[in-house]
Amino acid sequence: MISKTPFTHLRARSCYSLLEGIPSPEELAGAAAADGMTALALTDHQTLTGAVEFVDACDAANVRPILGLTLDAEFGSLALLATGLTGWASLCRLSTAPQTEPNQAIPLERLAQEAAGLLCLMGLAHGARGPFYPLPDSQQLDTVGQLRDIFPDRLYIELQRHKPDDDAAASRLVALARSLALPVAATHNIHYLTPNDAHRQRLLTAIRLNTPLRDLPPEASAPPGAHFLTSAEMAARFADLPEAIAATREIADRCHLTLPLGQPHYPEVNLPPGVTAIEVLRQKAEAGAGRLYGDITSELRARLDHELAVIGERGYAPLFLIMEEILTHARQTGVPTSSRGSAASSLVAHCLGITSPDPMRLNLYFERFLNPARATPPDIDTDLCSRRRGGVIEHVSQAYGPDRVAMVCTINRFRARSALREAAKAHGLSPAHIKTLTDSLPYRGWGGPSSWSNEDPFSALLAQSPSLETQAIIRDAQSLLGLPRHLSVHPGGVVITPGPMTDLVPTQPANIGVTITQFDLDSVERLGLIKIDLLGIRGLTVLGDVADALRAAQPQTYSSSLAALDSIPEDDEAARSLVRTGRTIGCFQIESPGMRAILREIEAESVDDLMAALALYRPGPLTGGLKDAFVRRHLGQE
Fold first, then answer.
1. Cα–Cα dist 399/68, whole Å
2. Residue 417 and residue 481: Cα distance in Å, rounded?
3. How many angstroms separate the Cα of 165 from the Cα of each of 10, 168, 232?
4. Which ranges of 230-276 would DSSP assign to H, the alpha helix?
5. Alpha-carbon distance 461 to 581, whole Å?
6. How far apart are CA 503 and CA 86, in angstroms?
7. Which of the residue ranges 23-27, 91-95, 206-210, 470-474 would you say has the lowest mean pLDDT?
8. pTM exceeds 0.85 for this model
């Protein structure tokens, strides 16, 4: 039966409270909708990684999303909820702070700096620093008084009743709230959906703290009963304090944040006074066309006009200008580059020097790159020398502002081997025993949740394990599959924002010394942010090293290392012979046995032949007979 009780959960953690929470944003939204709740707050611990996914999930479930954050303050755990975009920016900055200074509590001074647009819940909430400190009454009054000054008319004393001895603490907090004329609100820490998941949450805690389950103190994991309680259960739990239940609906009604999803947020580019980005782009494209083609024919003019009209209508001109500036810098500093992907279909990109293939000669369709019906910004992927790539990214940071540039994160999830290894470690197995256990798994990839749901990587191992302890470990590992484990760095994605990054996106430092977003690629794109792919390729590093050696040996012949590369003729007979006979091991993209076989079949000896071979080496042509037909016609056999 759907409850009509006016209650809203304000303390829910998702699986993006890494190694703390279990439910996905979709599962949380679904549970709220099933109970008839009209709103739900996500307050992950010190991270906002799941925010965009949560908004989409709530929209799909017809539940109004409230975005918040659980922070460890000097005196305990706080929940902060955004009332609008100003509050969202405050959350982003506050979420970024503990990532740069881990294990440090947020001081009151920092809270005061970032309090705009936020509601604050404080009191009896179990967090990393435990419940609200058992301070003397005078210090409690002083601390709450400071928070009331920081959050005027936006501070609530929260009450929780996870276990029987919480009642006495809740009574003291009610008295404290009444003495200061502050409202009380009933909350409940949600770490999982059903009571059956309590063990799994404890397992995650043991993994997070690197502590065997047998040595894990009860207070280290989630409080008792940290599952999703229905509105009716919460109302019964706080039957003596109906105002605490009603306050949750009041809080929900005060939160009206709408993230600017799908709206483009383009970084600023340096433009001459009085001209627009699309005007500058047209000038550069026409100048480039003149250099490449000489006279601009009616066909070239029509193609340029068409592409520029679409680019201008969608507001993508800054993206092209940014890519042109980055690649110009790379070339000027001797960094070998190469274009890849559908951007080669754009004449504008070719005229700006962003891509090298000639889309007119190759009859490439612009719509393959930028379809007018496409809602998201196009991808312009660029390969760079892997060793020199860091210098290019540093240039991007300096050119557009270190506070406006970050790498995109990827979400590393538990796969079969890591899940089994961590579960075994949590059960106290020795390193040697853990290695024996994980080595018994088949070596295969487990790429995503769909594959985990379709096939169990542990079924064979479970069937052949007589030990009850080993079976328990395997079942625990099964329960971890697909859960987020930690954030890592996307191999190429760089985000540039129009203003300070943390006005819109939370960030954190990565181990390799760069700043990354807390949002993955999907969330970044949903926010309409400019993302460029600068991929490090070792093959280009080899080319760069060879070019450096050529220039060092013949400084009078080559003005730069890249000039040495540019001077290499495409019709060199020795190189053509190597390609024609498939002797291409070590050459990027054409070194696999299958590719080398195709090179021999079509007797490849030109760049166009290489493009044909790469296009043929795809599942469709290979399985549909198209490859064989092409080879016969290419060789003049039919």
1. 33
2. 10
3. 22, 6, 22
4. 231-237, 242-254
5. 45
6. 8
7. 470-474
8. yes
Confidence of residue 128 (pLDDT cuts 50, 70, 90): very low
Q: What is the mean pLDDT of the chain?
A: 90
**3-state secondary structure string, 55-83?**
HHHHHHHCCEEEEEEEEEECCEEEEEEEC
- Average pLDDT for 289-310: 95
Q: Residue 536, SS3? A: strand
The count of residues in the chain is 638
State the Cα–Cα distance between residues 59 and 40, nearest whole angstrom: 11
Q: What is the DSSP string of 588-628?
A: TTS-SHHHHHHHHHHT--SHHHHHHHHHHSSHHHHHHSHHH
Q: What is the DSSP letter of 132?
A: S
Q: What is the mean pLDDT of residues 473-495?
A: 93
Nearest to 25 by CA among 49, 54, 48: 54
Calculate what percentage of the chain has a pLDDT beyond 90: 67
DSSP-derived letter for residue 106 is: B
Residue entry with tokens 């999303």? 65
Say which DSSP state 358 is in: -
Distance CA 558, CA 548 (A): 10
Q: Are 277 and 530 in contact (CB under 8 A)?
A: no
Report DSSP state, residue 278.
Answer: H
| 622: CB partners within 8 A, 6+ apart | 616
Give per-residue pLDDT as tens, 90-119. 999 999 987 777 667 888 899 999 999 999
CA 174/CA 166 separation, integer angstroms? 12
* One-letter identity of residue 388: R
Q: Are strands 39-42 and 507-509 parallel, antiparallel or unpaired?
A: unpaired
| CA max distance for the chain | 95
CA pair distance 381, 337, nearest whole angstrom: 11
User: Average pLDDT for residues 486-500, to the nearest whole number?
Assistant: 92
pLDDT category of residue 448 using cuts at 50, 70 and 90: very low
**Per-residue confidence at 570, pLDDT binned at 50, 70, 90?**
confident
pLDDT at 595 over 90: yes
- Amino acid letter at 384? L
Q: Which amino acid is at 261?
A: L
Q: Determine how many CB atoms are found less than 10 A away from the CB of residue 54.
A: 27
CA distance 192 to 233: 16
The span from the CA of 243 to the CA of 7, in Å, is 11
End-to-end CA distance of the chain: 71
pLDDT at 137: 59
- pLDDT, residue 169, reads 82
pLDDT mean over 510-529 = 89
Encoding tokens for residue 591?
């070194």
Answer yes or no: are the C-beta atoms of 406 and 505 closer than 8 Å. Answer: yes
- Examine the pLDDT at 373 and tell me if it is beyond 50: yes
Tokens representing 371? Answer: 């379809």
The tokens for 528 are 């309409």
